[in-house]
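ARCHIVE CARD
Drawer: 12
Card no.: 0347
Subject: one protein chain, sequence and derived structure
Cross-reference: see card 0346
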Amino acid sequence: MGEEIFIDANIFLEIFFDDAKAGECEKFLRSLDINEKVGYTSDFLIYACIIAIENRYKDNERMKNALIFFKNCSNLKIVRPSFDELDYAMEISRIEKLDFDDSLVVACMRNYGINELASLDRHFDKVKGIKRIKI
């Protein structure tokens, strides 16, 4: 396979909530196959997406559809953060002044040797060794 890119929850939530950049985010995810890139995300971010859908819509069907969406992303690998990565995320949070969930993204990326991040969050721009893909 080709390059690897980590995908933040907000890319998926943009689609699930049909927000302003939903079309661009869908196009980006479809481009992974075309450009032979492998997308990575964590199970934690998938849970966060499903919880966000539940909180916004209180709709079990929408939650199921999100799960189906994730299952159908052929070039998406799901990583499960280890206890070491959780510990590392706490250290990153302290050093980089990021929330824990964003620090966990950075910890997973570093553990898997991934330098590119698809995210709508600009605060990742200040993190050394991370190139945020602007969508």
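Annotation on reverse: The beta strands are 4-7, 38-42, 76-79, 116-118, 131-133. The chain has one domain: 4-133.
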